[in-house]
Design brief:
Layout lengths: L1 H36 L18 H15 L6 H14 L7 E3 L1 H9 L5 E3 L2 E6 L4 E7 L4 H5 L6 E5 L2 E2 L5 H8 L6 E8 L2 E8 L1 E3 L5 E5 L3 E5 L7 H14 L4 E5 L8 H9 L7 E6 L5 E5 L10 E5 L6 H11 L4 E4 L7 E7 L5 E10 L15 E2 L18 H10 L2
Parallel strand pairs: 11-12, 12-15, 15-16, 16-19
Antiparallel strand pairs: 1-18, 2-9, 3-4, 4-5, 5-6, 5-7, 7-8, 10-11, 13-14, 13-18, 17-18
Helix pairs in contact: 4-6, 7-8, 8-9
């Protein structure tokens, strides 16, 4: 009896295995007929098993053949082209190289030098969140009057969701005709806020200064725009006329800008013929930037830095530190040690492309490393936003003042 039960169980198991095997065979035959013998994608997707000899144009042609044969919807030729180019450029994996469409390029090139029609904000990329963060609104600008604050995240513009990957395009979309409006959706902490702000002609004058205790001059600016160096010089001369004997240059939260403006400011402090910067291209060809003028600032200088001190700001801080012309106080800088150029292509579109890396006078690389300050000073834990620090809590500024009064 027991033996018969075992036989039945055995027969049942074998039957299940046999059915499963037959099902597998039939399924395999079905897939084989679909993918190999039938009128299928296989004959189009030959590049999947090719020896790598097929170039990008052939690959795109292959995909286009598949789209033409199988895609249900309508095909927008221009959108396909722009999507392909954008994806191709993004494949470089460089956060600073990007494709700019013809329409956006026209807006982008209208005015990138500091005077523009817009709402008046400085923006940076937050690498931790991949979002666009407001560095600061320009004083007296429509953005400041509307209540935009440092540290706000811009999550959409005119209903279009955006990330830090769209930085260049978004900046042009925020600009526009004078009197027109732009809608921003802002993330502030856990709160989402909506703003509709009228655009105005923004005259950027980023350099501000004052005399602190013990005849210490203080100069602050948020970016290196056209004429920033000249405005810096004017502000310094104003403070010098008031009797300053030392100077603090606050580059915290300065996201950079025009490299030549940073070099010109360095030239006000460095000795004539000093090396300010090495620029190195892909073939390791070096361009040496030297100071061509005599210095006009001959007094102790301290530069304040933090994690938002980037690009041209790092060029200025690195040059003066290496040359022994300034001490740095604060926290390690952002670490953007590469330079981009804007190229206009024949069809009117553009490419912002990383072409060189820069080295400080001591040949120190900064990219993805940053500049570690001579005196590391953290802000107190009570400071919730490094973009908006009350003077009473500003331990970095206090340390600089202390060093200049010793």
């Amino acid at each position: 009896m027991e033996e018969k039960k075992r036989y039945k169980v055995y027969r049942t198991i074998m039957l299940i295995i046999l059915v499963a095997f037959i099902t597998f065979i039939l399924t395999s035959i079905g897939f084989y007929q679909y993918f190999v013998k039938g009128d299928s994608l296989n004959k189009y997707l030959t590049f999947m098993t090719s020896d790598g000899s097929q170039d990008i144009s052939q690959t795109l042609d292959t995909y286009r053949a598949v789209i033409d044969k199988y895609y249900l919807g309508d095909v927008d030729e221009e959108s396909l082209k722009e999507g392909a180019i954008k994806g191709y450029i993004e494949g470089l994996g460089d956060p600073y190289t990007e494709y700019i469409s013809k329409e956006d390029m026209e807006d982008y090139m209208e005015d990138t030098m500091g005077n523009f029609v817009g709402i008046g904000i400085y923006m940076i990329e937050d690498p931790e969140t991949n979002q666009i963060m407001v560095l600061s609104p320009i004083k007296g600008s429509p953005a400041e009057r509307a209540g935009i604050q440092p540290g706000d995240y811009i999550i959409s513009v005119n209903g279009e969701t955006c990330t830090a990957d769209d930085m260049t395009v978004i900046s042009t979309k925020i600009k526009g005709e004078e009197g027109s409006t732009v809608k921003l959706q802002i993330l502030r902490g856990e709160e989402t806020l909506d703003f509709e702000i009228a655009r105005e002609n923004i005259i950027v004058n980023p350099v501000e200064g004052e005399v602190l205790e013990n005849n210490i001059g203080y100069i602050e600016f948020s970016s290196f725009d056209e004429n920033t160096a000249e405005e810096f010089k004017t502000k310094f001369e104003e403070l010098q006329a008031q009797g300053i004997t030392s100077l603090i240059i606050d580059l915290r939260n300065n996201g950079g800008g025009i490299v030549d403006e940073a070099l010109q400011i360095a030239g006000y402090i460095a000795d004539k013929d000093s090396v300010l910067l090495y620029e190195v291209d892909k073939d390791n060809k070096e361009t040496v930037e030297k100071n061509e003028s005599n210095p006009i600032i001959n007094m102790p200088v301290i530069i304040l830095t933090n994690e938002n001190t980037a690009s041209s700001s790092e060029i200025l801080a690195g040059a003066l530190r290496d040359l022994g012309k300034a001490k740095t106080v604060g926290t390690t800088t952002y670490g953007k040690g590469v330079i981009q150029q804007i190229l206009t292509l024949p069809d009117g579109s553009g490419l912002k492309i990383t072409t060189e890396k820069y080295l400080t006078p001591n040949r120190t690389e900064i990219n993805e490393v940053g500049i570690e300050p001579d005196e590391t000073v953290e802000l107190p834990e009570s400071v919730k936003n490094v973009l908006n620090v009350d003077r009473s809590e500003d331990t970095q500024l206090q340390k600089a003042i202390e060093m200049l009064t010793e």
